[in-house]
Every structure is written in C-alpha cells, then in structure tokens.
Design goal:
The chain is α/β, with parallel strands linked by helices and 326 residues long. It has a single domain (2-324), classed as Ribonuclease Z/Hydroxyacylglutathione hydrolase-like (Metallo-beta-lactamase, Chain A). Helices cover 30% and strands 23% of the residues. The chain has 10 helices and 16 strands. Helix 1 (39-52) links the parallel strand 3 and strand 4 (61-63). Helix 2 (69-82) packs parallel to helix 5 and helix 4 (102-117) packs across helix 6. It starts with a strand and ends with a strand.
C-alpha cells in the first residue's frame, strides 16, 4: 500500500487529505476542513487530488473530528460541495438529550457568560459531558456548528446510511485505518443537573477541555504507523496504549502544538520520524517545548507558520515536500 498525506495550510486549524493506494485502487480521506475562509485552498488541493486519483467525483471518506470551528466549518462546505459523491461521513450526531435541553443549556451558559467570564461568547453554546477517562468533565464548543452540518445533510438529501459515528474500533473499508478514541460511552452520558453544569463551566471553561473527545485515527502501513490526533488532550492520548502510539512514522501533533495537549513522556513513546504542527506561530501555538521534545528525539518538525496558499506532502517514500499552489 502507498500512502500520501497532504497537510493544507489552514493556519491554526486542521485540513488533512490522505491518499491510500492499494492493488490498483485508491481512496481519498479528508480529515477536517479548517475554518470556512480557508475552504477555497482546501478544495483547490482536494479537486487536484481527486482528478489525479482517477477523476473521482468526491472523497471516499470525510471525517469531522470534533465541532471546533477550525475543524468542522470547512467540513460543512465540503459536504455541501460534494454531496452524495462522498463515500462515507464520520461524525458524531447530536444526542436526543442535547436537542431536548438545548434551550436550558443556552440560558445557563448565557448567564454564566454574563456574570463570570465577561468574554462575550454570545455566539457559543457550550455543552458539558461526563468524561469517562478521568471522571472530570469536558466541554464542547459551538454546538450550533454541528446543527449547521446536519441541516446541510438534510437540505441536500445526503444518504444517511453513509454516516457513521467514529467510535473506537471503527475501520475504513479493508484498510488498516481505524479510530483509536473516543469510546462510544463518552457521548451517552451528559450532565443534566443545572447547578453542576454551571460549576463545571466555571472550573473548566478556561482550561479548554473541549478537545478531549476529538477523534484520533491511526493508519498502519507495513511497519509504519501514522497518527492523526486533531485536538486530543493528554488524558485522551495517555489512554491510548503505547503499542498504538509508539515509534511513529508520522504524527499530527495535537492541538497545534499546545503544551497543554502534549508532553515529553508522550514524545518519548511516539518518537515520530515526521511531526506536523498546524499552527500560526503565535504565543501559544506551537509551543517551543513541544517542538524541542520532538526534535530532540530525531523528529523532522514541519509547521505551517509561513503564510500563503500551499500544502505539505508526505509522499510514498516518506519525504516531506512543500508545494506552492498558484
């Protein structure tokens, strides 16, 4: 099997195109789509890939790892553009509880926002879920974006039989491409107590635990392992076995190289040959310690700190090429 990975420059976000070639066939996987304003460059590269891979009418798989805008908004446009030419769509669907209690959750968050945070997050609906990994709580941002995605699905008549919830163990066709996290139970237990919700908003909102439920995927090609982590945090990654995480060919470094989502001990286990950090080089992303830990262990660190329309290609030989798009 040949593997090619394209990391499109969407600055502080993710938009990854994976091409798998095996026995005369090829499949194109899109992992997230970045913010909406980057979709022209994502589609430019995706259209080029689809043409090269036999004039495919659409990607074979689109994965929405979580509902932060720098990941899901581009997915909404991709679904709208390629419609039922998409082979499979992996995304967690809104739960019955959250639909039923959306109004109360909006009211709760609005009161918290006005009285405590003062940050004016008027367009953000934050939902809290019980996190089975550690017993603490995780937050999810921007539920409205997930609603927008499913509205597009309804409006275009997308074949819902193609939608799968990306729980641990899910595989794509007969490829060695599978979901390592999260566990399905994570989405089945929601916080229902209003006071408990407010308490957890106060304690967790500034710690950005929303990313804990990011879909983490692994691709295995012979002895080479490729790990795609989206914005997974330390509790998620530490819950993945060393056998899955160790000695990687390629690591999509979690949460744009944030020190809150990676550690030196994880770098010891991962030891990736190539690390990709999708970040705009501000005061937080990527963190210099994260880059240093990886470099110290022999990793070639590749970032998208340079502005512009371009993509990075990890080709079938494992070489990283920087390719400009006109």
């Amino acid at each position: 099997m040949e593997v090619e990975i394209n990391m499109v420059n969407v600055e502080d976000g993710d938009a990854i195109i994976v091409i798998l070639r095996s026995e005369g066939r090829s499949d194109v996987i899109v992992i997230d789509g970045g913010e909406k304003h980057f979709i022209p460059r994502v589609k430019k590269r995706l259209d080029s890939v689809l043409e090269k891979e036999g004039n495919k009418p659409g990607p074979d798989l689109v994965i929405c790892t979580h509902i932060d805008s720098d990941h899901i908004k581009g997915c909404i446009d991709i679904i709208s553009s390629y419609k039922n030419n998409i082979g499979e769509l992996w995304v967690f669907q809104p739960s019955v509880y959250l639909k039923k209690n959306k109004g109360e959750l909006i009211e709760t968050f609005t009161k918290y926002d006005n009285s405590v945070s003062g940050k004016g997050w008027s367009n953000v609906i934050t939902l809290a879920y019980e996190d089975l990994f550690s017993g603490s709580f995780a937050l999810y941002e921007s539920y409205t974006q997930l609603e927008s995605l499913f509205k597009i699905i309804s409006d275009i008549g997308f074949d819902r039989s193609k939608i799968k919830e990306p729980v641990k163990g899910l595989r794509f066709k007969d490829y060695p491409f599978e979901v390592l996290s999260p566990d399905a139970n994570f989405f089945n237990q929601c916080i229902t107590d209003r006071n408990e919700l407010i308490d957890n908003l106060k304690t967790m909102a500034k710690r950005w635990k929303v990313n804990r439920a990011s879909v983490v995927c692994k691709l295995t090609n012979e002895k080479n392992k490729y790990l795609f982590t989206a914005d997974a945090d330390l509790s998620t990654l530490n819950n993945i076995s060393k056998a899955e995480f160790g000695n990687l060919k390629f690591l999509d470094v979690p949460h744009h190289g944030s020190i809150a989502n990676f550690s030196e001990s994880l770098a010891d286990v991962a030891k990736p040959e190539v690390s990709f950090i999708s970040a705009i080089n501000d005061s937080h992303h990527p963190d210099s310690d994260v880059k240093g830990w990886l470099k110290k262990r022999g990793s070639v660190n590749v970032t998208n700190e340079e502005k512009g329309t371009w993509y990075l290609e990890l080709d079938k030989l494992g070489k990283v090429n920087v390719i400009k798009l006109s």
